[in-house]
Amino acid sequence: MPQTLRNDRFLRALRRESVDCTPVWLMRQAGRYLPEYRATRARAGSFLAMAKNPEIACEVTLQPLERFDLDAAILFSDILTIPDAMGLGLHFVDGEGPKFERPLRDAAAIAKLGVPDMETELGYVMDAVRVIRRELDGRVPLIGFSGSPWTLACYMVEGGGSKDFARIKAMAYNDPKALHALLSVNTDAVIAYLAAQRAAGAQALQVFDTWGGVLSPAMYREFSLPYLTRIARELERGEGAGRTPLIVFGKGNAAWLGDLAESGAEGVGVDWLIELGDAARRTGGKVALQGNLDPATLYGSPEAIRREVRRALDSYRDGNGGSREGHVFNLGHGMSPDMDPEHVRVLVDEVHAYSRR
Ligand code: CP3
User: Fold this and answer.
1) 3-state DSSP call for residue 321?
2) Is 28 a residue of the active site?
3) Does any ligand 1 atom lie closer than 6 A to the CB of residue 180?
4) What is the mean pLDDT of the chain?
5) Which ligand 1 atom is the nearest neighbour of the CA of 95?
6) Residue 7 and residue 23: Cα distance in Å, rounded?
7) pTM
């Protein structure tokens, strides 16, 4: 049944259309900083049990929306669902983050990988999208997401998080053919995954290239950018006002914002290491920008948070020819478990109040 969207600021901003005030959502807006999340997690047993149960995934997706005046919901899931469905054996070790039982160490292991079936192996994700759309009932749009081919490859080759990315960088230097084979199958999987989320009801899509910024410019142009561009070009997502916008978020992406603006994505997410106004000048109105408050701003006082929100909003306007349009407010990366929910309220309300047209 077609729903009318009661709050479409987020989608309008991504199309660079005029809005009544700047839309805002926060990466990791559902998570451990919320006591109600911790309660649901204790009941479900683990993070993965939550993500694999569509009703529970829906419940935690909606939790931050019950508290704050957010302009978008993001599917509660993880980027590592794809490698898990490819057979790498995902689990989470308390305090250490994600781990794979069977990380990829050579070309032979990579050659065996295939694109998982989206409605069976990843059916729990599509079911969650459908349940969330039903329960949102048109309040705000739902964002679906995926990891970037490079960021997924980092976890698949390293076997978990990494500080130096030694294994995957060694593969890039010693066996670039194997790494390109991995990036290529990941790209096929990401395109199929985002298309399936869109078909299930996701109204915007975001690719997290969290680890693109650990690459040198030459390496980025070889191992991340071409695959992001392929996703933006090949992902079928409609035309005109009905087009499902794609946001490419990257940590440490300041040096290649110009390339990302040409990628075919509608939006580019930026971290806090660049002034938003500079980012706007570098992308020259070709894309909407999303960001970019330092997440640690949320450790500041309410007054400091309001001041930084206003600074970021004004910086964007000054770099965008004096206009606030084409900006989605967000942090430059995800929230942390020890942040105060009341500070999120201060941030969200200040974005709306200060940017009111
Ligand atoms: O933004 C949201 O609210 C939507 C949900 C979401 C999660 N992970 C939930 C989650 C999204 C969009 C992600 C993406 C994700 N997952 C990324 C890209 C974005 C980023 O943060 O850079 C990455 C690299 C991952 C991989 C991942 N998943 C890590 C490194 C961890 C451990 C984090 C930690 O602090 O322990 C996860 C687990 C995870 N994914 C949690 C949540 C809420 C914490 C789970 C828990 O312990 O309850």
Assistant:
1) coil
2) yes
3) no
4) 97
5) 36
6) 10
7) 0.97
C-alpha of residue 93 to centroid of ligand 1, in Å: 13
Q: What is the mean pLDDT of residues 18-28?
A: 98
Question: What DSSP designation does 246 have?
Answer: E
Cβ-based burial of 356 (10 A; exposed 0-12, middle 13-18, buried ≥19): exposed
Mean pLDDT calculated for residue range 161-188:
98
Tell which one of 36, 56, 67, 78 to mutate to probe ligand 1, the residue whose CB is within 8 A of the most ligand atoms. Answer: 78
Whole-angstrom distance, CA of residue 276 vs CA of residue 257: 11
Kindly report the CA angle at 214 between 209 and 219, in degrees rounded to 5?
Answer: 90
Is 311 noted as a catalytic residue in this protein? Answer: no
Tokens of 148: 């970037």
Does residue 106 have an active-site annotation? Answer: no
Residue 196's nearest CA partner among 82, 73, 328 is 82
Peptide bond into 292 cis (omega under 30): yes
Q: Say which residue the tokens 């660049």 belong to.
A: 274
Closest by alpha carbon to 212, among 189, 235, 229? 229
pLDDT at position 249 is 98
Instruction: Say what the pLDDT of residue 1 is.
Output: 47
At 173, give phi and psi (nearest 5°): -80, -35
